[in-house]
Amino acid sequence: MSESANWDDFERLGLRVGTIVRAEPNSGAREPSYRLWINLDEGSVVQSSAKITERYRPEALVDRQVVVVTGFEPLRVGGFRSDVLVLGAVSDDGVVLLRPDEAVPPGTRVA
Questions:
Q1: Strand pairing partners for 34?
Q2: Does residue 28 lie in a domain region?
Q3: Residue 58: which residues within 8 A CB-CB, separation 6 or more?
Q4: What are the pLDDT digits (tens) for 63-84?
């Protein structure tokens, strides 16, 4: 059995709402994915590689708000730095992105 996470673990990672400002195929990744640039607040753009190609086209992702997990050490995915994890629900038809049902400012904390 694995060790349980505690509240401090959750707060150390953090969930935020960001707005995708750029999206393109990540041709260096082993599995089809996109390179995303996400605005988390004024002047703070982070990157993420996301396997969401089954349901989304890059041009349809720009200006879409998404929920991300912050606080991870950056990873390299197909030669691309990934700073945050974009959250989605895994369905039989691919990942469905999580987002607020009303627009909120980039960087808004998710509780």
A1: 25, 50
A2: yes
A3: 23, 24, 25, 34
A4: 999 999 999 899 998 899 999 9
Domain count, the chain: 1
pLDDT digits 0-9 by tens, 10-54: 778 889 999 999 999 999 888 899 999 999 987 789 999 999 999
Domain CATH number, residue 50: 2.40.50.140
Beta strands, E only, the chain:
15-25, 34-41, 44-50, 65-69, 75-77, 80-82, 85-86, 88-91, 94-97
Does 91 map to a domain? yes
Domain that holds residue 19: 7-97
Residue 44 maps to a domain: yes
